[in-house]
From TrEMBL:
It holds the Pfam family ABM. Residues 4-96 form the ABM domain. It comes from Cryomyces minteri. It comes from the Eukaryota. This is ABM domain-containing protein. Gene3D superfamilies: 3.30.70.100. Signal peptide: none annotated. SUPFAM superfamilies: Dimeric alpha+beta barrel.
Length: 109
């Protein structure tokens, strides 16, 4: 069975990109240290706009691993902070994907 790939598009509210990035990096650190069935958790930042969007590219062992991630205290805390601080311009766009072709070289970001 192949991995479950997830792409999340995060659109910060005007002036909130730095705070959103801070929270996403905190979560990424937690995921790296605590979620062994999360194989990839790459945060990307758009560079061509004054108000950048973020793209999180994720890879999980399976659906259960994703559910575990979404049920973690760290993830729930992120969602709570984003909501309470009104950090997003629009709701998250989340895409669950299966690879259809191509390749990935081994690299560390």
């Amino acid at each position: 069975m192949s991995n479950l790939e997830v792409v999340a598009i995060i659109s910060p509210a005007p002036g909130k990109a730095d705070r959103v990035e801070e929270l996403l990096l905190q979560l990424a650190k937690h995921v790296h240290e605590s979620e062994p069935e999360t194989y990839k958790y790459h945060l990307h930042k758009e560079i061509d706009k004054k108000e950048p969007e973020f793209v999180m590219i994720e890879s999980y062992k399976n659906k259960e691993s994703l559910k575990s991630h979404q049920g973690s205290d760290a993830f729930k805390s992120l969602v709570k902070q984003i909501t309470e601080e009104s950090l997003l311009a629009k709701p998250l766009a989340i895409y669950m994907l299966k690879a259809a072709g191509g390749f990935e070289k081994r690299s560390k970001i």
